[in-house]
């Protein structure tokens, strides 16, 4: 199951192919969303030109970087704990330098240097190209910081080094930042304004990945449906573009089509969609191309109109249901997943019941569910009181999770007896006799290895299923192979 925040990957240190001439050692660890993991690949690529090879041994590192997440308080606490660990190691290796990257760097800025004495370097998500200069300052014995957010930076010109890759699936970043201003969310403050990457550089990356043996890409952005390229510039300035720019602009549906046609055997996924920005031309494009996976992550956060309004989600429950019904009509096979927040300020039992009833109406295949965590600087923090007691948030969260698990089970059970195409990604568990991969609908599937190998497209007959996993027997290569 593809996770927005993949718990199994949190804190994974990243290692890439080493350059012989490089003598310095970089330990880089990532927390949070897929975008952070993707950014760490960009950072590693920039630093490999500065003489750094990656290591997964913290004790050996000359430079330790942690790419951080601010989405909930818990994410920040996890990073604080890691900094304590680095501090302990630094005592035995005083030359080791420590840098904080990502959303916490952006949110806390120079406070980090004051609060956490061991931190030498603070770099926000749009300033990674400045790393070589910042490192030079650190080497001269000064603390260094760059948290300037950019209106243009997309790192489109940097080819990311694939870290700890399975060689089969990869993320391709297409937009950065978010303009939606959901009142609970810190992302617009930590990642800045929304901007799109040049489609040519995206296509080049997709083609390059195919030539290196990759079989599946996920187009990545905080709000992919909002993708818009008209020669550069912010989405919000599109009105000011010339007629020519407007006529030749590329929107998300067009970008999807370009990727699907460029590599007809490459599976294409995307994440994340936003209900207010997703248009039916995207759904129709998905229907037109077999290689675009039939899966949409469509966070809704709440089933209550009143709460949606307080969250500034810019769509009603009815509009969301209408979109879902259109998806089900155009793509009957498509699975849909959700993000939900329980205990947003002022949420009543009735609002919570609305969330449960929305879930019953949609029947999501799976979801990512969270108790509301107040984030400093957001509109909700400034204007609303965090008034739902923690026990109530947690009890509602449990009810939402329990209902989701029922629906997930119904979904996985519905595949029993069917034959589905799976792209093999890795061993189910290290040293296991089973392969693990996903079907087009993004459901996890395990089956005996037999003679198949990682990267093969295999038809698998599903014989049983748990709440989250399909279990089957391979029946042969699929025609995609
Ligand atoms: N558009 C983004 C959303 C990022 S945040 C994307 O690419 O996925 C991922 C999810 O975290 C949100 O959909 C929301 O459900 C949850 N979240 C965000 N802020 C939160 C908060 N303050 N408290 C609890 N959950 C939150
Ligand atoms: Fe956050 Fe809403 Fe954007 S959840 S990332 S502000 S769409």
Automatic annotation (TrEMBL):
Keyword field contains Iron: yes
Uppermost EC category: transferase
Boundaries of every Radical SAM core domain copy: 164-410
GO CC terms in record: cytosol
Domain TRAM: 413-476
GO molecular function (one): 4 iron, 4 sulfur cluster binding
UniProt xrefs under InterPro entries: Elp3/MiaA/NifB-like_rSAM, Methylthiotransferase, Methylthiotransferase_CS, Methylthiotransferase_N, Methylthiotransferase_N_sf, MiaB_methiolase, rSAM, rSAM_horseshoe
SMART domains per the UniProt record, alphabetical: Elp3
Keyword vocabulary terms for this entry: 4Fe-4S, Cytoplasm, Iron, Iron-sulfur, Metal-binding, S-adenosyl-L-methionine, Transferase, tRNA processing
Cofactor(s) this protein cannot do without: [4Fe-4S] cluster
E.C. no: 2.8.4.3
PANTHER family to which the protein is assigned, alphabetical: CDK5 REGULATORY SUBUNIT-ASSOCIATED PROTEIN 1, MITOCHONDRIAL TRNA METHYLTHIOTRANSFERASE CDK5RAP1
Oligomeric form and interacting partners: Monomer.
Record function comment: Catalyzes the methylthiolation of N6-(dimethylallyl)adenosine (i(6)A), leading to the formation of 2-methylthio-N6-(dimethylallyl)adenosine (ms(2)i(6)A) at position 37 in tRNAs that read codons beginning with uridine.
Protein name: tRNA-2-methylthio-N(6)-dimethylallyladenosine synthase
Species assigned in the record: Oceanihabitans sediminis
Lineage, top ranks: Bacteria, Pseudomonadati, Bacteroidota, Flavobacteriia, Flavobacteriales
Gene this chain is encoded by: miaB
């Amino acid at each position: 199951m593809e996770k927005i925040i993949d718990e199994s990957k949190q804190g994974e240190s990243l290692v890439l192919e080493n350059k012989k001439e490089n003598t310095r050692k970089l330990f880089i660890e990532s927390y949070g969303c897929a975008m952070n993991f993707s950014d760490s690949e960009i950072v590693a690529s920039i630093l490999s030109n500065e003489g750094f090879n990656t290591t997964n041994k913290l004790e050996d590192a000359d430079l330790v970087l942690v790419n951080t997440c601010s989405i909930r308080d818990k994410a920040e606490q996890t990073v604080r704990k890691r900094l304590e660990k680095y501090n302990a190691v630094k005592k035995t290796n005083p030359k080791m330098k420590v840098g904080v990257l990502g959303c916490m760097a952006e949110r806390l800025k120079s406070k980090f240097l004051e609060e956490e004495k061991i931190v030498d370097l603070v770099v926000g998500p749009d300033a990674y190209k400045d790393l070589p200069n910042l490192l030079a300052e650190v080497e001269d014995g000064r603390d260094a910081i760059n948290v300037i957010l950019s209106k243009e930076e997309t790192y489109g010109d940097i080819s990311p080094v694939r870290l700890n890759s399975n060689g089969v699936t990869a993320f391709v970043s297409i937009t950065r930042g978010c303009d939606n201003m959901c009142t609970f969310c810190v992302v617009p403050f930590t990642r800045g304004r929304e901007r799109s990457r040049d489609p040519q550089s995206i296509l080049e990356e997709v083609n390059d990945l195919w030539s290196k043996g990759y079989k599946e890409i996920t187009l990545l952005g905080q709000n992919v449906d909002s993708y818009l390229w008209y020669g550069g510039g912010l989405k919000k300035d599109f009105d000011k573009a010339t007629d020519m720019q407007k006529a030749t602009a590329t929107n998300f549906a067009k970008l999807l089509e370009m990727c699907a046609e460029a590599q007809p055997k490459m599976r294409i996924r995307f994440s994340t969609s936003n209900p207010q920005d997703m248009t039916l031309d995207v759904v129709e494009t998905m229907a037109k191309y077999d290689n675009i996976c039939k899966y949409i992550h469509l966070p809704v956060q709440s089933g209550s109109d009143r709460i949606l309004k307080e969250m500034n989600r810019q769509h009603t429950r009815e509009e969301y249901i209408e979109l879902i019904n259109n998806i089900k009509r155009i793509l009957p096979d498509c699975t849909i997943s959700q993000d939900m927040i329980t205990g947003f300020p002022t949420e009543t039992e009735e609002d919570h019941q609305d969330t449960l009833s929305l879930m019953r109406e949609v029947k999501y295949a799976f979801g990512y569910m969270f108790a509301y965590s107040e984030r400093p600087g957001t509109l909700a923090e400034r204007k609303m009181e965090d008034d739902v007691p923690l026990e109530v948030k947690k009890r509602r969260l449990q009810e939402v999770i329990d209902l989701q698990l029922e629906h997930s089970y119904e979904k996985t059970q519905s595949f029993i007896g069917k034959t589905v195409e799976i792209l093999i990604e890795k061993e189910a568990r290290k040293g296991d006799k089973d392969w693990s991969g996903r079907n087009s609908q993004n459901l996890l599937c395990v089956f005996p290895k037999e003679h198949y190998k990682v990267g093969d497209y295999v038809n698998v007959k599903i014989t049983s299923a748990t709440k989250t996993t399909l279990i089957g027997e391979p029946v042969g290569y699929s025609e995609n192979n």
